[in-house]
Amino acid sequence: MDAAPFKPACNRMMFWSKTKDVVHDFTSKKKCYVTIEDTFLGSVLDGLTWCSKDGSKDTFTSDCPGWSDCVNNTVRSFWTKASASFAQVACGNVSVMLNGSISTPFNANSIFASIEAKNFNPAHMKSLQVVLVTKEKEVSNCGDVSLKDLQKELAQGIKYNCQEVTESHLHDCASHSEKPCGPCW
C-alpha cells in the first residue's frame, strides 16, 4: 500500500457490496466513477488467488490449501488492507451500490460494512449516496432495517441518502446518457 497509495478521487469514488458485475459494467461505461478495482493495485490483483506452501519459496496461484476457509489468508488480508486504505481517502460525495434484490443489502459481515464504512473519515467525506440496485422485482427498499444500521454506522457529519434504481435503468442510463458524468439515480 505504501508503494502505490490510493489517491483521492473526490466526488467520484464508488464502493459496492454484492453488486460487483453491475458496478463494473456501470463504471466501464461511466468513466467518472472509480472503484477500488479501477486503481493500479486493484486492477492488477482483482480476481487473483495466490499463496505459498510449506517448504517452497514459490508463489502459487492455484491449489491453495484451505485458503477460502482461513479468515487470514493472503488474498483476504490484501483486500482487507486495500479496502481500508481506499475508504480512508474517500472524499466529497461518495457512492455505494448495494444489492436490493437480497434481504439484507447492508450485511455486517461484508467488506463494505466491516471495513470500508468504518474507515470513512468525516473530515474528508461529505455524504454517502446509497444506490440500492434491484432487479425488476425488489426484495429490499431504502427503508430496510439493515440500511438504518448503515446510517448508524456512519461517522457523525457524513450525510446519508438512498435511491432505489433498477439494474436495467442503470444499464440504459450508462449506455445512452447525454451527460457523460451525470449520475443515473
Any chance you could write out the topology, listing elements then pairs?
Blueprint: E1 14-17, H1 20-29, H2 40-45, H3 74-88, E2 92-99, H4 111-116, E3 125-134, H5 145-153, E4 159-166, H6 167-176
Parallel strand pairs: 1-2, 2-3, 3-4
What descriptors fit this protein?
about 180 residues, alpha/beta, Rossmann fold, 4-stranded parallel sheet, 6 helices, about 30% helix, globular, NAD, ADP-ribosyl cyclase/cyclic ADP-ribose hydrolase, phosphorus-oxygen lyase activity
Please sum up the structure shown.
With 185 residues, the chain is an alpha/beta fold. The protein is built from six helices and four strands, in the order E-H-H-H-E-H-E-H-E-H.
Question: Can you walk through the features of this model?
Answer:
The structure is a single chain. This protein has 185 residues and is of the alpha/beta class. It has one domain (14-176): Rossmann fold (3-Layer(aba) Sandwich). It is built from six helices and four strands. The chain has helices spanning 20-29, 40-45, 74-88, 111-116, 145-153, 167-176, and strands spanning 14-17, 92-99, 125-134, 159-166. Strands 1-2-3-4 form a four-stranded parallel β-sheet. The longest helix has 15 residues, at 74-88. The radius of gyration is 17 Å and the shape is globular.
